[in-house]
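Good morning,

Attaching, inline, the backbone tokens for the sequence recovery test we're adding to the shared suite. The designed sequence is right after.
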């Protein structure tokens, strides 16, 4: 694919894009003045599939007209509602349908899975995460350690990039586990690191963890719907994710989790994880439903699950392999343009396509406050990315709804902002 920093090139790439029509099935945000924005922020909050509105309205109408009978007689009965999401999530996670369930929210699911899978004992008490992990994950892990009467200063290990590097090669994880694995109970690793955009070979991480006798759990907040996953085949023990980023299910949408089918272990329970046939006998004994469905705690939030049905249908139609192919080209174009147009902006995301997803992270150096001012100038020009303290702008072109023309607009706006802020 040949790239040029010109509108003609961007147009040619858009015209040759077999997925270009999917864009019209999303609500495309505009500025206060009504101008189209270049929305490159789907890594933070995905755009609304237009079909979401109809599905949410149907649930509201069913509630209005059927009230409690909606549990069984709604268009999509509410009791087995998670089944509407199962196959679509399994396809994206590379899982068997019984291994995934939409439920609760990301950090809560992380706690639930850590409660079951983090079993410190004797020397093996540590949890290994990446240095600079998303704050919520670090809070979850540190509090799980403390809650068990252990000291996070000892039992929480944060693996840092090598001196001067931003990313962590898989070899570093392998080397750490080879040397110190006997003290590690659980490895919690991101599919795609939220700040750097680095995508990991999760098969290698899982294998290294298992070879050292550790549990391999994954946070896929920035990976699901972004990069191909094969959780079943790589024998991941568990994984969690949210659905409002690449899965476009709306703010605070229902989260999800994966538990490999080989696991049948005690876990925290609630009535919605009970075997459905006998759940409403309300007996005192907990008999779990088979698979990940047995990990549900509460009856699901229908209104925050409904938009995910619309979004997963789009993923099903487009197919992740085709989306990924377009994503590699879109992000490749952004990388090319940043190299051509924005000398002085430092790309911290890996350059190899298989070591990243949609997102590129750009570090802005220079005097105090310069990065933030450049980011604000970008926003003022209608290019929406996001800012991560202390120095990073994140931009993510999304193959379901972004265009090559928007990528060009984003790069040109960044180039201009850099010129105006010496
Ligand atoms: C987005 C994100 C979260 C957010 O957690 P919620 O529980 O959904 O609020 C947590 N961890 C990671 C890695 C994320 O990317």
């Amino acid at each position: 694919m040949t790239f040029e920093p010109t509108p003609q090139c961007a147009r040619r790439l858009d015209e040759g894009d077999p997925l270009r029509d999917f864009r019209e099935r999303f609500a495309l945000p505009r500025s206060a003045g009504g101008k189209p924005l270049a929305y490159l922020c789907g890594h933070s909050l995905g755009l609304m599939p237009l079909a979401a509105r109809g599905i949410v309205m149907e649930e509201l109408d069913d509630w209005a007209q059927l009230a409690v009978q909606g549990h069984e007689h709604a268009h999509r009965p509410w009791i087995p509602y998670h089944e509407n999401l199962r196959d679509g999530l399994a396809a994206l996670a590379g899982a068997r349908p019984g291994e995934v369930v939409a439920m609760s929210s990301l950090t809560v699911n992380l706690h639930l899975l850590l409660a079951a899978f983090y079993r410190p004992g004797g020397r093996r008490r540590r949890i290994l995460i990446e240095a600079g992990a998303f704050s919520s994950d670090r809070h979850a892990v540190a509090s799980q350690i403390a809650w068990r009467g252990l000291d996070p200063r000892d039992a929480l290990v944060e693996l840092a990039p090598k001196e001067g590097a931003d990313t962590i090669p898989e070899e570093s994880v392998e080397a750490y586990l080879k040397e110190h694995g006997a003290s590690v109970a659980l490895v919690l690793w991101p599919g795609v690191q939220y700040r750097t955009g680095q995508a990991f070979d999760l098969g290698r991480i899982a294998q290294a963890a298992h070879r050292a006798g550790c549990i391999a759990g994954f946070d896929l907040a920035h990976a699901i719907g972004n990069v191909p996953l094969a959780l079943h085949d790589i024998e991941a023990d568990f994984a969690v994710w949210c659905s409002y980023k690449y899965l476009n299910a709306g703010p605070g949408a229902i989260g999800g989790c994966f538990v490999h089918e080989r696991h049948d272990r005690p876990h925290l329970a609630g009535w919605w994880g009970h075997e459905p046939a006998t759940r409403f006998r309300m007996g005192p004994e907990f008999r779990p439903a088979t698979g990940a469905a047995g990990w549900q705690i509460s009856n699901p939030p229908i209104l925050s699950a409904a938009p995910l049905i619309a979004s997963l249908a789009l993923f099903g139609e487009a197919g992740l392999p085709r989306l990924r192919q377009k994503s590699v080209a879109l992000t490749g174009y952004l990388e090319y343009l940043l190299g051509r147009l924005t000398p002085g902006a430092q790309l911290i995301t890996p350059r190899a396509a298989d070591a990243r997803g949609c997102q590129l992270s750009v570090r802005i150096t220079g005097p105090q406050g310069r990065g933030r001012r450049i980011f604000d100038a970008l926003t003022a020009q209608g290019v929406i990315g996001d800012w991560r303290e202390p120095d990073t702008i994140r931009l993510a072109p999304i193959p379901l709804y972004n265009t090559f023309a928007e990528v060009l607009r984003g790069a040109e706006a960044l180039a201009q902002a850099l010129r105006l802020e010496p």
